[in-house]
Amino acid sequence: MMIRSKTVYLGSYVHSVSLDQLEHVEHAIICVGETGVIEWIEHAGAEDLPAVSVRRGLVLDDIEVVELGPDEFLSPGFIDTHTHAPQYPNNGLGHGVPLLEWLDTLTFPTERRYKDVEYARGVYERVVQTTLNAGTTMACYYGTLHLEATQALVDICLEKGQRALVGKCSMDRNSPDTYVEYTSTAISSAQDFVASFPHLHPAVTASTPSLPPLVQPILTPRMAISTTPELLTSLSTLAKSFDPPLAIQTHLSENDEEIRTVGRLFPESKSYTAVYDDFGLLGPGTVLAHCVHLTQEERELIKEKDAGISHCPTSNYFIASGEARVREMLDEGIKVGLGSDCSGGYAHCLLPVLRLATHVSQSHAFANAQRRAYKPLSMPEAFYLATMGGAALCRLDNVVGNFVPGKEFDALRIKPRSPGVWVHKGEKVEDRFAKWIWAGDDRDIREVYVRGRLVGGSSR
User: Fold this and answer.
1) Which of 288, 287, 360, 358 is nearest to 318 (CA)?
2) Per-residue model confidence as pLDDT tens digits over 153-171
3) Which of 23, 4, 32 minimizes the C-alpha distance to 411?
4) How far is CA 388 from CA 132, 311, 361, 394, 439, in A?
5) Mean pLDDT, to the nearest integer, of 230-241?
6) Hey, which residues does 273 pair with through a beta bridge?
């Protein structure tokens, strides 16, 4: 079998060119090289391919041509900036249960099971393929306390081809006796987890290609309540021992009771956000999940440190945490992405998350009707958060998030087929895209590509 060095995609595509602007391209030729990087894009039809090939120096017999159907289009892959891989078996459980009770009664008992590595592997195989098929080309995963199980999650992401930041949870207090680490163990296991990524070592890095690793570690202090000052200090030191510092993910300001508890545990800090800053954990690679009840001062601190926020509206509604004020965050220049937060959130696909993000923002607009200048989150903005916003949050906006030459081809091939999406012959790609966003689901995701490799979709 001949191995083609390049692949050319013919058809329509939609992507974000800025926070509030989508580009809808009806006819395009996208050339992807053998490393999965977009080499060039021409706004031309399939009939123009011979002429374009001559101009671009391509030999048609040496390339693979993928021609989209008349109702199909390409979309950038979704980037889920906050989700818990071990919690997917609990999806749909715990509606309305407050956060801390939800953790004790549902989450921690489930996560304890991942001490069994074979059990973990079975769940994670399904989680990664399910999220890929649903269009998540990149995920920020929380694992459990278990080192081997979380390493298995890394292996599975690599095997199946999903881009990911994977974190082994760190928890050394205020957790069940059967699901907690000694501080010394939490520190050493975090170090061991990072050490298992060979690409982080300078000798290896110097000899590897320029493409960023598909799967990278992210330090994961679960939340301030469950981590001691000693552990937070050690994780900060570990992060800063690399250049650039390792990414960090944690929870922030999700629930009123959580915030009060943090205040009692860290009386020296001015706020919940300040706790993380006081321990050197806020920076460009920090992903802060939820941020429902931030003060103005806290938002300013997050912006100052160039950290970012993962907005998780399905979770915030499902376990009754509240409504994050995303419009204010964006207006103040804070980086924001979207997170499914399974199983606090019930959706394994970012489409419902994207939709609910607009509804939550509209709810704020209704409540502030007297403020005529209040602008609810638009669909183009929400789509940006699900793609380019997530990429920026993960420090990969120069790598993925939209279709630009030099970026990697992480893409969804959309073929409308779900019951809610009715496409008419000759309908513009702008309308097909809008119907999918508002009325479609993952059945419409025919194929999923990461770095140019076909890794999922409803056709598989």
Assistant:
1) 360
2) 999 999 999 999 999 999 9
3) 32
4) 18, 14, 19, 10, 22
5) 98
6) none
